[in-house]
Amino acid sequence: EAELLEEILGEKIVMEWVTSGDDRVRQTHVSRNGKYYTPEKTTTLIGEPNCRCATIATPVSAVPENKKIIS
User: Which of 12, 29, 31, 47 has an alpha carbon 20 to 30 Å from 20's alpha carbon atom?
Assistant: First the structure.
């Protein structure tokens, strides 16, 4: 998905981690909320049973300057 979007937009894509925002979210996932990851790193984080988190494909140019991209 990210590779196709990069091709369409002509720029690098990163993934923003978003939790469901309730009290059932795991603490490890709360700490990831709102952070930006490379697509490669995201694939190593996703897949835990019953996880309700999502990642949002985001062009690098849309990442706020005060946020770092985790790889």
Answer: 12
Burial grade of 50 (CB within 10 A; 0-12, 13-18, 19 or more): exposed
Residue 51 CA from chain centroid, whole number: 14
pLDDT tens sequence across 22-69: 999 999 999 999 999 999 999 999 888 999 999 999 999 999 999 999
pTM: 0.89
Helix spans in 1-71 (H):
2-9, 27-30, 39-45
**Count of residues in the chain:** 71
With beta carbons less than 8 A apart as the criterion, state whether 55 and 69 touch: no
